[in-house]
Fold this protein.
Amino acid sequence: MANALWWVIVGLIAGWGTGKLMRGAGYGVLMDIIVGIIGAVVGGWIMQQLGFSGQGGMVYTILVAIGGAVLLTALVRFVTGQRTRPALSDRDKKDDFRRAA
């Protein structure tokens, strides 16, 4: 049970961190957890192939998971052709409000 909770916590942190690094719209809490867990598996596999033992603490695990999730997200965006949408600045928001009025 504690192991499953560990995976969920790492997945949530890694998914959130990936969302911030990749500047996407975000997928929500559940998808952040899933992306983070899959990223941890992918990142762990890559690190193992590079010869790292994988015996690190929580920070190491989260960094590897973020790295794997970033690679996974970049690959999905490349395959699907999805582009990130830049955040609206305050000026753009005011212009949108004026156009709607």
